[in-house]
Structure formats: structure tokens, C-alpha cells
Amino acid sequence: MGAQSLLTRLSANAYVPSFKDFKGTPFNTSIPRFLQPTKWSSMPADHTYGLAPCRIRSSKRPFLCAVSSQEVQEFPADSGCHDLKPNRKRLAVFVSGGGSNFKAIHEATLKGSVLGDVVVLVTNKGDCGGAAYAKEYGIPVVLFPRRKEPQPFSPSDLVTTLREFKVDFILLAGYLKLIPVELVQHYQKRILNIHPSLLPAFGGKGYYGLKVHKAVISSGARYSGPTIHFVDEEFDTGRILAQRVVPVCAFDTPEELAARVLHEEHHLYVDVVAALCEDRIIWRDDGVPLIQSKEDPQQYS
Fold it and tell me: Which residues lie across from 142 on neighbouring strands?
């Protein structure tokens, strides 16, 4: 989109025009998210498609951009907000790198195979590929953690910001920092992570990226694959929700195995997020989460 990111803090009286400000003016829903971004500007955290009025209570919330439109465009009178599904979930995605799983999920939301919207990206690296992709598509980016500032952005601030975005679920997609306890407690059973091995094997602190695949190959394991699990206060110890198996070939390099696992990650994560947004995750009496089949509600995986 050729838009330039802008890191800014929002003032206490920041304001977005309300829907009534445009009363009588038709909108063009052929543009994704109502208002295709034509320039970057600061906007409060809890805006919805650039239309909802809001005021920010704190000036400590950091953003690398939000979107607005330079003008209101026309569309036929019979197409409007009612076209949106009322049950679409609001998703926050956390990344530290290229964000290929984030991209796969976002593309699925645009195609309609996931009944949700990525409303904010959180990253600990503001210049990573995932952040660049988010800014290209007009998704606000929050930098966390941030320590080199007079007023640090605390875990409580992050919880407040996500609440202002009205986030339903948090999806970790290659986020390499431990999730703060405050966030885990506020979003219990609503934070998912994907790990590139068959947990509980080859998980925990220090097991990430190629380190995982090197360890798998060195162990002599014949199978590996991605695991999606709910997040608790430790690394990779939350309840397992879904797994997919890939073979470890006799003369695999870590890079070859990583590519094979990543291919399955993209499909698995999209399938799981689709189930999450459709309320097809149930919890067994012993605390194990299961995915209800869309085709046959009596079947679970």
C-alpha cells in the first residue's frame, strides 16, 4: 500500500468520528473493512473499522499505526454493515519474526474460511516481517515488551489495550517471549500457541526455530510435526488441542524438516482457528480440549 508507519502515543482526548457523523452518506463495502487505508494516522485502540467513537484513558499505549480514509466512498443502498456476520470473533496475533502463520490466518479471514478478524498485531520486534505485513493491511501494531522508555508499557497496559480492541482470542504465531501472567489470567482458555514439534517432546524454554528440528533429528525420532496448545504460565506446557504428524526422513537437514513441518503448521492453525471462531472447542471433564467436527457434531478430534 506504500503507507509509512508512524510510532505515536495517543492523547487522552483522541477521537474518531462516530457513525452518526456520516449519517446519510453511503459507504462502499466493496472495499475490505469498509475503509481501505489511504494514509497512516493515529487512532484509538478500540476503533472498529474506523467508525466507532472512543476516548483513550491512558497515554501510555504505543502504536505503530492505525488506518483511516481520506474520503467516504459510495456504494449501493442495499449493501452495508448488515452484510457482516454478527458472530465474527476478534483476534489478536503475536509474532516475533516473519509471521507466516499470521499471514495464513489473516488470508483465511479475508477468504471467509475463518469467521474472525485480526484486529491487532503484537510484536516484540517492530521491524519484523509480521509487523510489516500487518501495516500493509492496515492492522494496528503494538510493540511489547518495550523497556527503553521513561514510562514502560507494562503487562497490565497490554491487557487494557487488548480489552480496548475487544479481543476475543489471542493467537501466538512465533512469538518468542513468555506471555505475562496477567494476560494468561485475563484470557484463560483463550490463548493458543503453535509449536514445531509433537509436544510434550522437544518443548520448553530454549526450544524454538531450528533448535527444535536439530534436536528432533539428533534424537533419532522418526516423526515430528506441529502442536497447537492452550497457553499457561510456562513455555509449552498448556493443554494440547491439535497435532499433525510429518515423517522425519533418513537424511533430513534441520532446514528440510522445518519446511515440512511449517507447511503443516499453516493448514493446522487455520483449521483450529476456524473451529475456535465457530465455538467448536469443547472441554472434557478431565480438562482436555477437543475439536468438534463441523460435518458431524457427534465426532471430536
Answer: 122
Nearest to 179 by CA among 72, 283, 96: 96
Task: Please report which residue ranges of 86-234 form alpha helices under DSSP H.
Answer: 100-111, 129-136, 155-164, 181-186, 210-219
How far apart, in whole angstroms, are the C-alpha atoms of residue 226 and residue 242? 8
pLDDT digits (tens, 9 = 90+) for 161-206: 999 999 999 999 999 999 999 999 999 999 999 999 999 999 999 9
Q: Which residues are catalytic?
A: 195
CB of 64 closer than 8 Å to CB of 126: yes
Task: Mention every residue, 6+ apart, whose C-beta is less than 8 A from residue 117.
Answer: 33, 88, 89, 90, 91, 109
- The closest alpha carbon to 63, from 147, 131, 137, belongs to 131
Cell of 199: 509436544
Residues 100-123, mean pLDDT to the nearest whole number: 97
Which cell goes with 43? 487512532
Beta-strand relationship, 191-195 and 169-172: parallel
Q: Which residues pair with 83 in a beta bridge?
A: none
Instruction: Give the pLDDT score at 245.
Output: 98
SS3 155: helix
Region for residue 178 given its phi and psi (left: phi exceeds 0; alpha: psi -120 to 50; beta: otherwise): beta
Task: Specify the pTM.
Answer: 0.72
Distances (CA, A) of 292 to 37, 80, 274: 37, 32, 11
Please give the backbone phi and psi of residue 158, each rounded to the nearest 5 degrees, phi first.
Answer: -65, -45
**What would the 3-class secondary structure string for 269-295 be?**
HHHHHHHHHCCCEEECCCCCEEEECCC
